[in-house]
Amino acid sequence: MTRLAPKHQRLILAAVALLALTGAGLGGAYALRSQASYFYLPAQMLADPPASDRSVRLGGMVEAGSIQKQADGVTIAFTVTDQHGARVPVRYAGIVPDLFVENSGVVAEGRLLPGGVFEADNLLAKHDENYVPRELQDMHKEQGGAALVTGGPQT
Amino acid sequence: MHGFANPRRFLRLARWLTPATLITGLVLAGGAFVWGLTQVPPDRLLGETVRIMFVHVPAAWLGMGGWLGLTSAGIALLVWRHPLAAIAGRAIALPGLVFTVICLVTGSIWGRPSWGTWWEWDGRLTSMLVLAFLYLGYIALSDAYAKAGTTMRVPAIFAIVGAVNLPIINRSVVWWNSLHQPASITVGKNAIDGAYLAPLLVAAVGCACLFAAATLMRMRALLAEAQMDARLRRQALEAAPTLLREHA
After folding, report:
1. Distance from the B38 Cα atom to the nearest Cα atom in chain A, whole angstroms
2. Min Cα separation B66/chain A (Å)
3. A121-124 CB contacts, 8 Å cutoff, 24+ apart
4. Considering chain B, what percentage of its residues have pLDDT values greater than 70?
5. What is the mean pLDDT of each run of 10 residues along chain A (155 residues)?
6. Alpha carbon A95 to chain centroid, angstroms
7. Domains of chain B
8. Nearest to B171 among A29, A124, A134 (CB)
9. How far is B123 from chain A (nearest CA, A)?
10. CB spacing of A32 vs B122 below 8 angstroms
11. B167 vs A contacts (CB less than 8 Å)
12. What distance lies between CA B108 and its chain's CA centroid?
């Protein structure tokens, strides 16, 4: 067997080290996907409901036509849904962020009450990956085309 | 690459490349920022705040690209013992940190009106903050080794180990439920309208030129510093016997 030049030995060592490290990072990140997640999807929350005294986050899409203003004027009720079709009703009293609209992403911080209603004490809006000027969006609507990539929450 | 093992040849190239990248970068980035601030229509949801993208996204790319540069310099140092690798690493680290901090700050300013929060311990945000801390660690480590005058092998290993964070930043919005949206531009897919994409790409190229200019300037400064140190040391050695004789 011929011996490799020291330079090539070092090159192979560095390549193996780099591969092992990035592989370890990717593997670790992949293994953490349920722990490092920032929120529960509705399907995850329904499958394994958190205790009602635990503060958790619920994230998903605001269901179309589900936002209802309550009689007191500050409380709103809406439904968070995901691509699996799971739905969780949410109640929130306070100021909503600008991006909080129907058919858009939302992250609610709060607790899941025993009745199955999620009581939020903070709402964060989630933006999707699409960037479209207002005028163009209207144009898409007029044409009735779904030219936008509809970005759902990633699982 | 090995043609530049001779610092003099590198310096000859850097002498004209520095002003070239600096001027190109200033023109492209400045033009793209003005373009993005004044000529681009508001986004359907984000409204006027979409203009932050033209600073935020190039800064994020270059913050990560800078660490890729540190890793390459580290490998060049460890494998080929390239004489310029240590200086390149030290030169890249500071602009890399600056772009990472710009990304974090503009992201925070963007997050307040759009998401409703300045900061959340979300996977993408946290891994990007870790990148900033890695840069700080690399700068402290390489400065200490440079001051001691020993080999720069430990900072190079640190740079390679730190590269573990890059795939985590990339996957953080795909594998973990995150507040930050997934990437708009991936292989074979683009979800950014042309009205935003054009100034974004020009801004990215411009900022990359500015990154290159800053790196070249720092490399020249570090080489000059090393040269000055060597000259002072030589002078001290030459002066030493005379001094001894005078004291005798």
Report:
1. 14
2. 17
3. A121/A92, A121/A94, A122/A94, A122/B116, A123/A92, A123/A94, A123/A96, A123/A97, A123/B116, A124/A97, A124/B115, A124/B116, A124/B117, A124/B120, A124/B179
4. 95
5. 79 90 88 81 88 89 88 88 89 86 89 90 89 73 43 39
6. 21
7. 21-182+198-221 (1.20.120)
8. A29
9. 7
10. no
11. 22, 25-26, 29
12. 20
Task: Categorize the per-residue pLDDT at B5 as very low, low, confident or very high, splitting at 50, 70 and 90.
Answer: low
- As given in the structure block, the two tokens for residue A80 are 């968070």
Chains A and B form CB pairs within 8 A to the count of: 154
pLDDT at B245: 63
CA–CA gap between residue B67 and residue B162 (Å, rounded): 8
Contact B104, B129 (CB under 8 A): yes
Question: Which two tokens mark B130?
Answer: 């870790």
- C-alpha A14/C-alpha B37 separation (Å) is 44
In chain A, the residue whose alpha carbon lies closest to the alpha carbon of B197 is: A131
What residues in A contact B44, CB-CB < 8 Å? Answer: 132-134, 136-137
Residue B45 pLDDT class (50, 70, 90 cuts): confident
Min Cα distance B248 → chain A (Å) is: 51
For residue A48, the SS3 value is coil
CA angle B167, B117, B197 (to 5 degrees): 55
Tell me the β-bridge partners of A107: A59, A124
- What one-character DSSP code corresponds to residue B247? H
- ipTM, 2 decimals? 0.78
- Substitution target in B48, B50, B70, B175 with the highest count of A β-carbons within 10 Å is B175
Sign of the C-alpha dihedral computed for residues B113, B117, B120 and B126 taken in this order: positive
Q: Do B115 and A37 touch (CB under 8 A)?
A: no
Q: What is the pLDDT of residues B210-225, one digit of tens each?
A: 999 999 999 999 999 9
